[in-house]
Amino acid sequence: MGVEAGALVTYPVQSAYIIFVLVMLGTLLMGFPALAQPTPRTALTLTLGEVVNLARTQSIASRQAATLQKTNYWKYRSFLADYKPQLSLDGSLPSFTRSFIQVQQPDGTIAFQPVSNNNSLLNLALSQNIPLTGGSIYVQHQLQRFDNFLDRNTLYNGIPFAIGLSQPLFRYNPMKWARRIEPLRYAESNQQYIEALEQVSLDATSLYFDLLVAQVNLQIAETNRANNDTLFTIAQHKLALGRLSRNDLLQLQLSVLNARKDLASARQTAEVASLKLRSYLNLATETGAGVRPFELVIPDGVRSFEVDLQQAIRQAFANRSDAIAFQRRQLEADRDVENARKENGLNATLNANFGLTNRGARPVDVYTRPQDRQFVELQFIVPIMSWGRQQARTETARANQQLAVQSIEQAKRTFEQQIYTQVTLLDMLRQQVKLTAEADQIAQSRYQIAQERFRLSDLTVTDLGIATQDKDRARRDAILALRDYWQSYYTLRFLTLYDFESNEKLN
Q: Can you tell me the distance from the alpha carbon of 325 to that of 188, in angstroms, rounded to the nearest whole number?
């Protein structure tokens, strides 16, 4: 180093020429960072909209939401089927028995008699629930055959036609409440599916900007490393000319080391963020020549549309599953009160059956001149002394109903507050994006001027470091402001299920 310094002192013209060449070389490197680190041609360039669409169509989260929605659809179909006529065939064929059975004799003794028979039964029934009353009506046809293998005879018994009714009296009717609650539950599940897709969009946006911020930090680190290497080389020659102190040189050398450390850390962070986004989008995550790296595009500004607060609240209460859940929870609380009140009083059930029946040695005998068949039964339970259990159950249900009403009211207030906060936040973040973009341009221009002044020995190393920090901070702030805006944009869509840009409901 001493020999080189002496040569510079002896030949000032050559020294000035070397400095000029180094300055020009540094200017070229800093002016065209893409030439120092070219982007691979095989990189997969993606915009924010493309990443969101990929996540909504092929991510595991979107497929889980679709599967859950399909499950809820078939649950609702099963509920609807319960209110339609049901045709069923049941029976036992064969029902063979060979054993000894206990038979009490006239004198009170017990004898064990051998039995060997087959008692087969077929029953065809058409039933229909009655949601209005909670009962059910049915029509049936039944045929029974009994074979006694010991006596070698066969008998037939049957019901050619019968109509029956089973009707609870003074009791809780679950079918009436199910017809009011289950459609709301199904509508709630439909809106939950749309919300799940919007949540996928929101999650994909977060992962997109995590990688974008990491890539911007990586670009900053690469540029700073190249710039610090060049400036350190220039500073060595300035030290040789006596135009720079050794303390400033050491400070620049420390900046070089920090830049290299930051570059290694930025690379690792970018790789981790890329892996997370690739995994969420359900793309290939194996490393190799077949996997194309991501190159994300910085979104151009923000969307220019106005959001009316009252309209946002109306759309949220009209579209969100939470708003439907408020109605469902209220009905469920009312249902539980009625259940506790009616099940604690007189409970009765009327069972009636009217039809034709007959028996014979042949199947045709069952249908020849059948006899009338009637069956009427009234079952009831009347609580006489329960030590206040019925009242306690009823009052507990009423207290839970009041608690549900209060919880729903609080949830509505919180719901409105979320909408208000998000609408005002979106407008504030839109302004923030514009301000940080302007600050980024100013900081980049100031850094270029600081570089030129340092080359001309008109700026200290400390001031150059401050300009570098301001430049990096401004670029990161601009990207973070974009991230906050787009997250707020998709959060508002999630909370309202409404697209304010196109003024239409999300389906």
A: 7
